[in-house]
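We both want to read discrete structure tokens more fluently, so let's practise on a single case. Would you write everything just below, so we can both look at the same thing?
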Amino acid sequence: MKTTKRIFKRTLVFLIVCLLITSGIAIYTLLKTEPPIFKGEILSDIPYSNTQTLDIYQPTKRVFQKSPVVIFIHGGAWIFGRKTSINFNRFNPAVNRLRNKGYTVISPSYTLATDDKSPFPDCINDVYKVINWVNAVADSLELDQNNLTLFGESAGAHLALMAAFDAQLPNIDFKRPRFNCIVDVYGPTDLNLIYQNEVLDSVNRWMNKLPDALLPAHDITSYLFGFNPKVDSLKAFAFMEKYSPLSYLINSQVAPVLIIQGAEDQVVPQIQSLVLKKRLDSLSISNELHILPQVNHAFIGATDAQKQQVQDWIVSFIVRNTKSELAIPEEN
């Protein structure tokens, strides 16, 4: 009996030590990546619609009379993801540097797919609602609504492009602002590839690697389409056309676009960015395309030097395209 108690006690102590070590590693990793939430003033869970909220990461340094706004739209295949992921992702250095240069960064939640309902068009309309909200509170929060950047990753980049290309959909009153620029980080631009299974298969393979608790109950098509595309291919084609950013890129009245893409992306193949680049060039729209060799989706496989390049590209592009009036001379 005493032996059993001794074993139990040792096991309990061992588990507690393991938990403490794991927690310590997690906290160290979190602190090492310098999440924006640990810097400056944060306004959390501000409602911008009846169902969605946003977080405001205010500037850590006053540079402008009114702060330019960067709206960061998280990824997650339109199925999962949270607005707080801005603190646990690949862009912490860029977000921190922008805030130190006087920018306000806003991270909204948006409509995700559920078992019985596609996220479209609600997730796109949510981006419009965020922009409407910024316009409504600009004076009280000293925001420069005339200097607005959309910055999205993966599914979030798709939503940013839809809004930037003026893909206005029914049931929302929205006046399109003049965007400073758009930052598209491996965003899908032609959703027909989902129906053709290139993206769909790779996303399903990736999602199957997730823990069981995070896996959706049904195939991803049930979430994204809201119907079985194999049963009605014509309806599926119309759906993909309607929600593809390229369908709305038809004139030159578009802000400069920064595109960042991994050459070995298995979720959103680089052809999606190459096609976007070609269309932008044909319309004489200012753009930059950076392809990272030997890098997969979410910058898996990227070297430290490549990760640093990404931060520099983002910050430099946004700053170059900002036209806000300085409050005080900016330090070099």
About this structure: The longest strand covers residues 143-153.
